[in-house]
Amino acid sequence: MEVVQFVTSNTGKFKEFQEILGDGLGFNFVHRALELPELQAPLEEIAVNKCMQAAEIVQGPVLVDDAALAFKALNGLPGPYTKEFLQKIGLVGLNNMLAAYQDKTAQAICTLAYTAGPGKEIKLFTGSVEGQIVVPTHPIKAMSFDAIFQPDGAHSSYAEMGSKAKNNCSHRYKALMLLKGFFLKKGYKQSK
Amino acid sequence: MEVVQFVTSNTGKFKEFQEILGDGLGFNFVHRALELPELQAPLEEIAVNKCMQAAEIVQGPVLVDDAALAFKALNGLPGPYTKEFLQKIGLVGLNNMLAAYQDKTAQAICTLAYTAGPGKEIKLFTGSVEGQIVVPTHPIKAMSFDAIFQPDGAHSSYAEMGSKAKNNCSHRYKALMLLKGFFLKKGYKQSK
Question: Would the CB atoms of A37 and B41 count as touching at under 8 Å?
Fold first, then answer.
């Protein structure tokens, strides 16, 4: 069975990934903890660049994941820099960035990039969810914006709805469903 | 006379650079317009990386410059991402990022990186100025935060004090004075 390394420094992401995808892809995903340098660039360009770096290191199939919050009032920022903003100013700081604005709408975006190996084609799978930035009421989980993002149609933040409900509607869920479709099709073709 | 290429996509920076440094370094600085990819990283790491890229392209001596605003209330952000924040949310947007905070203090930072060529040592020169983020009252110059940064001890923003006064006290002035000292010493040694 082909082994695809999911390259991320964030173990929480890999756990979610497993919960969402389950088994039955015909591929075996394993976690590889690597911290890769990221560009200042649009989300898709960052993901492609990280995927190329990861494939060079691993010398085989890899998947990378980039998550972002795009605030509408800030024209898509903090976007690619969401992780660093989380680290440096926390969830309250992210909230405060919208203090001057009535518009609290935001997109949560997951960008996945997969390649079968160095020099091979890079496939992108993007999932996004519209929602609002809310005041964090839930105990705060490090390195996650779940406690301040409330998807449209939901009555609570990702953090408050719990991982099961979140993983049935999230930006990462949407991106992973596209990835799953790609792998199932690929497996079907291979077995012919 | 040795030619050092000052690599920047911002022509305004090169103009300031000439106004501050004048002649008499024993080196000839020329402008090279290149847009180089930047890392998500601390300021000095970004400058070193850009300098390495520039030296590879130019195959000779290069200087690169990175300017940033570090808001104290935001733990140093937007920092390396100041240029993108300026492009996407403008000076009013940068101001608004501090709406929730009493503390409007900030550092303006200029990081210069010089190398004599690819693979050679990279020298860093950092100049910083303490000040306040103020409401922009001056007509806004594209790609510059001069209209919202007021240095401590001054009664107006960089933009309002005019280029001559600014260039005698600015973060770029301080960094360039360190660079000048380095070049004068280098010239002195070479002539012995």
Answer: yes
What does pTM read for this prediction?
Answer: 0.92
Interface of A with B (CB under 8 A): 37-41, 74-77, 80-81, 84-85, 88-89, 93, 96-97, 99-101
3-state class of A69 per DSSP? strand
| Cβ(B151)–Cβ(B158) below 8 Å | yes
Angle at B26 between CA B23 and CA B27, to 5 degrees: 85
Here the ipTM equals 0.90
Phi, psi at A63, each rounded to 5° = -130, 135
List pLDDT tens digits, range B30-60.
999 998 999 999 999 999 999 999 999 999 9
Q: How many CA atoms lie within 13 A of B115 on its CB side?
A: 21
Please compute, for residue A45, the number of CA atoms within 13 A of its CA located in the half-sphere on the CB side: 10
Cis peptide before B118 (omega within 30 of 0): no
- Scanning every residue of chain B, which has its alpha carbon at the shortest distance from the alpha carbon of A39? B39
